[in-house]
Amino acid sequence: MRVLAAMSGGVDSAVAAARMVDAGHDVTGVHLALSKNPLSFRSGARGCCSKEDAHDARRAADRLGIPFYIWDLSDRFIDDVVEDFVSEYAAGRTPNPCLRCNEKIKFAAVLERGMALGFDLVATGHYALLERREDGHTSLRRAVDETKDQSYVLGVLDQHQLRHSAFPLGDTRKVDIRAEAAERGLRVATKPDSHDICFIPDGDTAGFLESRLGARTGDIVDESGEKVGEHEGTHRFTVGQRKGLRLGTPAPDGKPRYVLGITPVTNTVTVGPRESLRVARIGGIRPTWAETEVHDTWRGFAQVRAHGAPMAATISHRESQRVDEEPAVWVELDEPTTGIAPGQAVVLYDEDRVVGSATIDEAVPA
Questions:
Q1: Is 10 among the annotated ligand-binding positions?
Q2: Per-residue pLDDT tens for 36-49?
Q3: Any catalytic annotation for residue 198?
Q4: What is the role of this chain (predicted)?
Q5: Among residues 148, 289, 296, 303, which one has the fewest Cβ atoms lying within 10 Å of its Cβ?
């Protein structure tokens, strides 16, 4: 098969490309230039998409003896990921840009271009497993290394995208991937992982958003609507947050207060006790199904964070309020959880198999 290996310049994508070469595929490496003004060097483990990363990807491709290209997808990345991130925060929601990048860039734009050029698969260094059946169906499953499992951020992929994807690292632990890279003579064997939002390399999310949205002071109120403090912008907060509130009025019981809700229209942040964060039911919109057969009501597991614990739940069809609304789902949790924010993704599992995902738009208190 002709395989397009997405090479970020890190150890995972380099070993993924090497394994596809070992498997006998015709492999071409491609590095995605997602920034208009890439930094010359990364700062520690922050961010990616620097000139250093592009050079590291090219050196790895040279070591493997495969063709290598750089694709400039910066315009589409800005439109589909960065602007989406800013607009979601402006609307009081908490987005996950890594999911959006996987959905819109790595497994949409790259796959579209790759298939137009005659490639059969896009291979990445994500930690997840693919199970291919004789009938052509492909299932997405959790990786062997639970600490590195990335099935959550891949939960936005549909069946077409999964059929044309390859995740060669899903059956191996990260420590063994680094050892393999060293054995192969790949210079990225000891390179630190990037674990921050790639387009905010200094890690200052609030500062980045303020540069785009501006500072707009407003009130912090309690559940009764009484003002208890002021804020410098709703974009600085997310549901479940405790730090940085700087409340002028202490709670009557003296206990810490948490962000319960964000209302950009009135520019207010509502706070209250931790107990008020308890959520029993999650409403999701714009579902994407990795599995082709989904029952109206079924038992499974829900995960709301990249490395969060899976929660037992009953998933069912959610009736739309208007005929023009998109399909939606309800997720009834067996045990209430906390810190659910609109804009997050809820990824649905049948044991270790991803069934689908949806964007959270409602959290019903326990």
A1: yes
A2: 766 544 455 445 56
A3: yes
A4: Catalyzes the 2-thiolation of uridine at the wobble position (U34) of tRNA, leading to the formation of s(2)U34.
A5: 296
